Amino acid sequence: MPPSRVWNYFTRSSDKSKATCNLCKQEFVYKSTTSNLQNHLDGQHPSAGKRVSFIIIFLTD
Ligand SMILES: [Zn+2]
């Protein structure tokens, strides 16, 4: 799987179980998918989220 652009906006913890939003420093549990991270970008950072959504759809089609 190619690296997702969502990681331009989040930093993974060293054990990769959590991700911290680079824009607001909120921490999220990260479990194999980035959908909850993407939802956060869509809801809290719409200008960033739209770009990420487009790229994820493109990569997973
Ligand atoms: Zn955020």
Contiguous runs where pLDDT drops below 50 for at least 5 residues:
none
Percent of residues in beta strands? 15-25%
- Backbone shape: globular
- Our count of helices gives 2
**What is the CA-atom radius of gyration, in angstroms?**
11 Å
Number of strands: 3
Output the helix-strand order: EEEHH
Give the distance, in angstroms, between the N- and C-terminal Cα atoms. 12 Å
Q: How many distinct folded domains?
A: 1
Query: What characterizes the major β-sheet?
Result: 3 strands, antiparallel
Ligand roster: zinc ion
Strand order of the largest sheet: 1-2-3
List keywords for this structure.
binds zinc ion, metal-binding, Znf_C2H2_sf, BED-type domain-containing protein, zinc
Describe this structure in words.
There is one protein chain. With 61 residues, this protein is α+β, with helices and mostly antiparallel strands. The chain has one domain (5-60). 41% of the residues lie in helices and 16% in strands. The protein contains 2 helices and 3 strands, in the order E-E-E-H-H. The chain has helices at residues 35-44, 46-60; strands at residues 10-12, 18-21, 27-29. The protein has a 3-stranded antiparallel β-sheet, with no helix packed on it. The longest helix has 15 residues, at 46-60. It is globular, with a radius of gyration of 11 Å. It starts with 9 loop residues before the first strand and ends with a helix. Bound molecules: zinc ion (ZN). One of its GO terms (molecular function) is zinc ion binding. Pfam families: zf-BED.
